[in-house]
Automatic annotation (TrEMBL):
Matches recorded under InterPro entries: ATP-NAD_kinase_N, Diacylglycerol/lipid_kinase, Diacylglycerol_kinase_cat_dom, Lipid_Phosphate_FormReg, NAD/diacylglycerol_kinase_sf, YegS/DAGK_C
Keyword flag Kinase: yes
Entry keywords, A to Z: ATP-binding, Kinase, Lipid biosynthesis, Lipid metabolism, Magnesium, Metal-binding, Nucleotide-binding, Phospholipid biosynthesis, Phospholipid metabolism, Transferase
Designated name of the protein: Diacylglycerol kinase (ATP)
Pfam families according to UniProt: DAGK_cat, YegS_C
Entry-linked SUPFAM superfamilies: NAD kinase/diacylglycerol kinase-like (SSF111331)
Keyword Metal-binding on entry: yes
One GO MF term: ATP-dependent diacylglycerol kinase activity
Signal peptide: none
Enzyme class: transferase
E.C. number: 2.7.1.107
């Protein structure tokens, strides 16, 4: 078995770099053919992931966070290379959705265990394994990416507070194969899996094996309402709130002015976006 180990040493504020030697040693107990790649930035992560897949790796093992997982998904989707995620980031939403860990990956590799899972895809753009969002959440991402302090998850907490202070709703159009909605909305999240933002189950019932994308839409709400909804959101109970609408679709189009899409926490482009669920698009070591 040919294993490519892609290490993103900066992930998790350096956590990935600290455990890289241990992970490599574990993998070499399974197969002597382990080729390491060390990525110092996002461009390197994407490049090495594609090199591993085009080079014929049986498994691409990624030690990093959601950004690294997103890059690896782009390379492995639709290929013969199975993806193994060893979580070492700050959010780890992709790994959380599939209960992935170093011990779990080790056991699955030894047993030859594989799982076919769905992916979301932006037509003409990227694959996504977790959630694509736009509106309030994408503006939080935009703001957090501009902050140089604090580091880690607290940067996002600060960005959330800043965006709540400037909260607004904008016109949004959502079209699926079954229905069409036109409304003023605060945010939309389209989930292949439940989690984003470091464990928030924004699409709590999303199943990456049902051939469908789950859609959560928050309509126009005031600051006070949003503050009251946030604790429910973290517990996955927000879908019962009257301001929240949920849908399921194989494909959908979302349109709106001044809305930017983020998939797996990575910036995509401004709306409109056409999204599809692609069944069994990824082979996962799990």
């Amino acid at each position: 078995m040919r294993i490519a180990l892609l290490v993103c040493p900066a992930s998790g504020l350096g956590a990935a770099g600290r455990v890289a030697g241990t992970v490599a040693a574990c993998l070499r107990q399974i197969s002597p053919d382990v080729q390491p790649f060390v990525a110092r930035d996002a461009e390197g992560t994407a490049r090495f992931a594609h090199e591993a897949v085009t080079g014929g790796a049986d498994v691409l093992a990624v030690l990093g966070g959601d950004g690294a997982a997103h890059a690896a998904v782009q390379a492995c989707a639709g290929s013969q290379t199975a993806l193994a995620i060893i979580p070492a980031g700050t959010g780890n939403d992709f790994a959380r959705a599939f209960s992935l860990s170093l011990d779990g990956v080790d056991e699955a590799l030894r047993q030859g265990s594989r799982r076919q899972v769905d992916l979301g895809r932006v037509r003409g753009g990227a694959w996504f394994g977790t959630v694509l969002c736009a509106g309030f959440d994408s503006r939080v991402n935009e703001r957090a990416n501009q902050l140089r302090w604090p580091r880690g998850p607290r940067r996002y907490d600060l960005a959330v507070l800043a965006e709540i202070a400037q909260l607004r709703a904008d016109p949004l159009v959502v079209r699926t194969e079954h229905e069409s909605l036109e409304l003023d909305a605060t945010l939309i999240a389209v989930g292949n899996t439940p989690y984003y933002g470091g464990g928030i189950p924004v699409c709590p019932d999303a199943d990456p094996a049902d051939g469908l994308l789950d859609v959560t839409i928050a309509r126009r709400v005031g600051r006070g309402q949003l503050v009251r909804i946030l604790p429910q959101l973290r517990a996955g109970r927000h879908t019962d709130h009257p301001a929240v609408t949920t849908l399921r679709a194989r494909s959908l189009t979302i349109e709106g002015n001044d809305w930017v899409g983020y998939a797996d926490g990575e910036r995509q482009r401004e709306l409109p976006l056409h999204l599809d669920c692609v069944p069994n698009a990824l082979t996962l070591v799990a």
